[in-house]
Design goal:
five-stranded mixed sheet; Elongation Factor Tu (Ef-tu), domain 3; elongated; mainly beta; SH3 type barrels; 2 domains; about 5% helix
Length: about 180
């Protein structure tokens, strides 16, 4: 079952915590604690999850989910992505966009040639990255999502234009 466009990825269950059914939860929201304020969350299969308790942990959160009573059940939820209806999210300011809306867009080099398609936007702590599935290659490339690399922020034309330094792709793609 695919995710409808009106559903936005806001977090993922990364594992079990303790023996009473708590889960470790990674939030993708700009204010991480807000994941607990959106009401029931939904998985890609349509399963509903209601956070009844949320507290900060070392790198993420621990959460109690309504109906999850023991560690065994919590362990089965590892990797479940959590979505919320777009209408529950805050209104965007001018020149803001949800990362979810950029997925699948063409990534174009400044010279007009197509590099590939946006498949992810990971953040390993130093800022958002564009994960691009490079055309004609089985690998992906990571590009910093900064003004230096993505000088334009108008994504309404269905593409992301990137400015890569000379040689940026040479090591991985022989271009």
């Amino acid at each position: 079952m695919g995710i409808p466009r009106d559903q936005v990825l806001v977090g993922v269950i990364v594992g079990a915590h303790g023996i009473k059914g708590e889960v470790k939860l990674k939030s993708f929201t700009s204010e991480p604690l807000s994941i607990g304020r959106y009401g029931p969350l939904q998985s890609s299969t349509g399963q509903k999850f209601e956070i009844t308790k949320l507290k900060a942990a070392k790198d993420d959160f621990t959460a109690n989910l309504k109906g999850v009573k023991d560690r065994n059940e919590a362990e089965t939820l590892k990797g479940v992505e959590l979505f919320v209806s777009r209408e529950k999210l805050p209104k965007l300011k001018t020149n803001e966009t949800y990362a979810h809306d950029l997925m699948g867009l063409d990534v174009i080099l400044e010279n007009g040639s197509r590099l590939g398609r946006l498949v992810g936007m990971p953040n390993y702590g130093a800022g958002d990255l564009l994960e691009v599935a490079v055309e004609g290659n089985n690998e992906t490339v990571l590009i910093p999502f900064t003004n230096a690399f993505v000088p334009q922020d108008d994504f309404t034309n269905g593409k992301i234009v990137v400015n890569l330094p000379e040689g940026y792709l040479d090591n991985d793609y022989g271009q």
